[in-house]
Write a structure and sequence with these properties.
mainly alpha; Growth Hormone, Chain: A; 0% strand
């Protein structure tokens, strides 16, 4: 591989394509949930089941995405993914206009989009290290800020669903993915030297050989089960049943959360590169306990928004620290495959938490789905602090003094 730095234009084009991609994906998350909860009005157990069905196929595809990301030129591969992603929203728009939208059409919509995302995300994330002149911590944080801002715009658009109409919003979603194609094709050639042949077990073997990577991904999986899962599954029902909100209110909640996530990354950027990112990750577990308990006691609307914002701050810091630590430690030859395992930890947790938390909500109240996250955050704090090695880890992005 050449030691020449990437052209200065590579990172802005990468940010542009990733922002368009994230805008479409963020809108997808809003649409999938609100189509089932707000338009078709299915109960929590069935919505949780739908999410688990929609997110199971990507589990099988994600490792393939890691293999392809380490085997093929990322520029060409990602450009094809952008074009493929324009098809599902256009198809659902046609189905809706024909009056045939149903539970299973929404599930198929979710499966298709999630599968293409799983196929492309390992390559997209591993590409970052090869298109920027910044250190990994700051590059990932800048990318997160830009893509999160794009996601904010997508949530605002989702909140205008009743005014614009579903078909129009779906058409705009397809256009977002299509615009990203024009940025990705402006990247330089991103083929990797073929020192080995990538395979499905390569990422797992590499993670096992790297204890810090293995521990970080494992802890992230447990956290995603009932922390990220609570946001994805419980919040729509807290909005609809506890606060009696509509699509605009749900979009506002997502905007507030995402604003917190963006704010956390802006704050992190000011202090990067961090010397001991693992310590901050561990401390964030305790702050999440306070946030979830406050939300559980059904605060007045003003405090509810403050806690949602704080939750976004917390999740933004934690997610960025997980991503930067794993990407820093991942060898370049297997980086896509290791990142595929990291993404798999998110995706495996999502259908499990969707089913479990959906059943819990159906059996009790939406607020009860916040309590498992409290318990898990306390457990992660203890385990990560005592046995993971993350407290002692010193980042490679921090120059030795």
């Amino acid at each position: 591989m050449s030691d020449q730095p990437p052209p200065k234009s590579a990172f802005p084009y990468y940010l542009a394509s990733s922002s368009c991609w994230m805008a479409g994906i963020s809108l997808q998350g809003f649409l999938f949930t609100w189509l089932l909860v707000g338009i078709l009005e299915y109960p929590a157990a069935e919505v949780g089941f739908a999410r688990s069905i929609a997110e199971f196929p990507p589990l099988l595809i994600l490792l393939l995405g890691g293999v392809l990301g380490d085997r093929y030129d990322s520029r060409r591969f990602l450009s094809v993914m952008h074009l493929l992603m324009t098809i599902p929203p256009l198809l659902v728009a046609i189905v809706f206009e024909l009056g045939a939208l149903s539970y299973w059409w929404v599930v198929l919509f979710g499966i298709t989009v999630s599968s293409i995302q799983a196929l492309s995300d390992p390559a997209r994330q591993s590409t970052l290290s090869r298109v920027t002149r910044l250190d990994v911590q700051r590059a990932i944080t800048v990318m997160t800020i830009c893509t999160s801002l794009a996601g904010l715009g997508a949530f605002y658009l989702g909140g205008s669903l009743e005014r614009l109409g579903l078909a129009s919003v779906l058409g705009i979603q397809a256009a977002m993915f299509f615009l990203g194609y024009f940025a990705i094709v402006r990247l330089p050639t991103l083929a990797l030297p073929r020192r080995h042949k990538p395979n499905f077990s390569g990422g797992f073997k590499a993670c096992w050989r790297l204890p810090l990577v293995r521990n970080m991904i494992g802890l992230n999986f447990v956290s995603s089960l009932f922390n990220a899962g609570a946001y994805i599954v419980a919040i729509p029902y807290i909005v609809k049943e506890v606060y009696l909100g509509d699509a605009a209110f749900f979009a506002t909640v997502m905007i507030v959360f995402t604003t917190g996530s963006i704010g956390s990354n802006v704050l992190l950027l000011a202090f990067m590169p961090l010397k001991h990112p693992g310590r901050l990750f561990i401390v964030m577990q305790l702050t999440r306990v306070f946030i979830l308990l406050t939300l559980f006691f059904q605060p007045r609307l003003e405090l509810f928004y403050i806690m949602i914002f704080a939750w976004g701050l917390n999740m933004g810091v934690s997610t960025t620290l997980v991503r930067t630590t794993v990407q820093e430690l991942a060898p370049v030859a297997v980086r896509s495959q290791i990142l595929a395992v990291l993404l798999l930890s998110f995706l495996v947790s999502s259908p499990i938490s969707s089913i479990l938390l959906g059943l819990l909500i159906s059996a009790s109240t939406p607020l009860a789905a916040l309590l498992p996250g409290v318990i898990m955050s306390l457990l992660i704090f203890v385990v990560a602090g005592a046995w993971s090695g993350l407290w002692q880890y010193r980042s490679a992005s921090q120059p030795l003094s």
